[in-house]
Design goal:
Layout lengths: L1 H16 L6 E8 L10 E6 L2 E7 L5 E4 L6 E7 L6 E6 L6 E9 L17 E4 L4 E4 L2 H4 L5 H4 L6 E3 L5 E3 L5 E5 L8 H7 L5 E7 L13 E7 L6 E12 L3 E13 L2 E22 L4 E23 L4 E23 L7 E23 L6 E22 L6 E20 L5 E20 L7 E19 L3 E20 L2 E2 L2 E19 L2 E12 L3 H4 L5 E2 L3 E3 L8 E14 L2 E13 L2 E7 L10 E7 L3 E15 L2 E21 L6 E22 L4 E10 L8 E2 L2 E12 L4 E8 L7 E5 L5 E7 L3 E11 L8 E2 L6 E2 L6
Parallel strand pairs: 1-7, 12-14, 30-34
Antiparallel strand pairs: 1-4, 2-3, 2-5, 5-6, 8-9, 9-13, 10-11, 13-14, 15-16, 15-44, 16-17, 17-18, 17-43, 18-19, 19-20, 20-21, 21-22, 22-23, 23-24, 24-25, 25-26, 25-27, 27-28, 28-31, 29-30, 31-32, 32-35, 33-34, 35-36, 36-37, 37-38, 38-40, 39-42, 40-41, 41-44, 42-43, 45-46
Length: 796
Amino acid sequence: MKLKLFLICMLAAIGNLYAQTQGSVTGKVVDKASKEPISYATIAIKENNKVVTGGITEDNGSFTIGGLAPKSYVLEIQYMGYKTLTRSITITPENKTVALGTIAFEPEAKQLEGVTVVAERSTIEQKIDRKVVNVGRDLTTAGATASDIMNNIPSVNVDQDGKISLRGNENVRVLVDGKPTNMDASQLLKQIPSTSIKKIELITNPSAKYNPEGMSGIINIVLHKNSNNGFNGNFNTGITFGDVPKYNNTLDMNYRSGKVNFFGTYGNTLGERLNEGEIKQFDDNSLQLFDISNDNKTHMFKAGMDFYINDKNTISAYTNQSFTSGLGNVRTDLIFPNSANNITQKDIYDTDNVNSTYNLAFKHLFAKEGHTLDVEANYNHTKSNQDASFNPMGGGLSPYADYVKDNRNSTIINVDYVNPLNAKSTLEMGAEARLMRTDNNYLTSRLNTPNANFNYDVDIYSFYTTFGQKFKKFSYQLGARLESYKVQADYFQNGENAPFKNDYITVYPSAYFTYSPTDTNQFQISMSRRVDRPSVEQTKPIREFSTPRVTSIGNPELVPQFTNSVELNYTRMLKNGSVTAGVYYRDIHDEITRTFYPDPNADPSTKKIIMSYTNFDKNLAYGFEVSANYKFNSWWDVQPSIDFSNIRQKGVVAIKNDVTGDFDYTLKQIDAAAFNARLNNNFKASKSLRFSLFGFYRGPVDGVQANSKAMYKIDAGTRYSFWENKASLSIRFNDIFKTMKYGFESQNPYPGEGEFRWESQSLFVGFNYMFGGGKNRALQRKQREDNTKQSSGGMF
């Protein structure tokens, strides 16, 4: 009923907003000397010195401004480091479209050239297959890392453990510059400085061109990159004051001379992170108290080069090296009404992680514009060692130690071909091979627990093709991806092997249909089939962590989950902003989710449970989202967003039989509703001083295993620019009223409730400085799994 009411309201709003465009102006902005296109230049249309509408240039420098009545206007183009350019234009009933052609933009001699330019405020664009959030200074003020600013992005949530979800679903794939990484998403987001992010792409219904992983879609983080003649650099440093201070620093440098471009990055994050929580269990009136600290140090290096063989061929190579050391301390107090039964356990997790990536790419440009061939090879090696000691006191428990060693190797080779057959049609084809090898060794001194070895190997071969056509008001794209998937898992324990195999071939189709009745209105419907395959962490039956009552392990018998999705989206460009709205429906099979069940190897009186993963039965989900970007006047703009989803889940849970005392594994079905709302305000006090105010609310959500309680907060920030905009100082006060916490309640396998808290209330102070004097000549090189052309360099 709620969905029907929303559809009626949305259609009524569309009818009221719809208006016939009377005229438009088009053009392309390029650098006067190099003839390179200038992306994200500001276009303003003025009448009597007042701005009536505007926009920004695309990646290729082009722009189209519509909705112009028959009048005379002044078009104004602005971009940092260039002289402001103006043109007079006239729209008449006989000449509704003014084509300005190529516009040469002249650099400002005294301005700093070649540095990364960041807009003051973030903007949201709806493209054919994705929503693009162009990250401005208002978002980077939100925090030091990508994890800190993600909760400010429409449809995206990050929980207290750093786990990311899209539209309320954690089965989302995170890419950096269109490339997969071999790191857990929660750790990856904490290692990317917010000031390194150019834009965030939300691909909720990806086409066949993309690897099909991620049930709720793909989040692609696009980083700033420089490829400039001469030397350029960018330095960022920040400190977050919570219960204890945390530090982050990044130095990004670039040097280009002739046909060679060198780039390099160093970044680090340092500091201790604290968490605490409690779980009340009603059947025995026990209380578990958790005091957790993680002291992590991460150092990241990137070095690479681009070699421009000629105007048509480019070779690029780079390496990423990441080193992380962490010391985790977990204290668990298990308190009973009879204090003689109390248990205290102190655990120490000492972890070292090395992640190495090597990338080689070749790009060929054919004579026809947009006709390209890309060949890329990527090798990644991850080595992780963890020494863990568990020291219980009370309950007749003995101390023990664990040693876990992980080695992972991943090789990806892909070829992508794009051919614009004519002005209206484009053909894309590609092939990819992905080979992943994982070896996990587990040694323990725990009594009655044998050592173990777990191997998990995956081979994926795929081929895709898409074909699209664009007409005056209508465009479409059809595609399919054929994929062969093979997994071999071996679990050796006590000299015995428990193997698991899965081998299948699947087709993943996709379709997009877009209708643009005017330059300011766009409708789109899309369909796709997706898969979410279990990760190594979800499959390995080796201890992740252990407390007196909870042990976390994986499930090697997990099977992939498949999802069929349909979406309908609408985008409306307003005079001072834009509005996007959409509805979606998902049909989910074998959903992978968390599960809790009694430990079969433990005494039932101890009430120990296993936290693992399982496949639920067929589930359904539908919902809507609305977001806007509106500028009320020259000093105030807002970005509100809301999203709602209804999820029908079915899964097997362990329910205690009051008569026998045993646990019956029963199929349980629930209908859950999830609601999220955000409101970001940006205020311009002067040319150099900005303020922001952000509010967030996440409603309660019921689940098959547990029900989550509501969460909300308010943040405030400011940014001051100086030294001719070469430097800026940012301050952000997060969770002003200290309201953020994660609460839950559950009935199975044991009734209880809990709450976890972290350093949500904090003060962030950051400093940014841009230096160098090279002139901008961006290398246009298509990155893997990204439909836009980008320059090379950057962090990942």
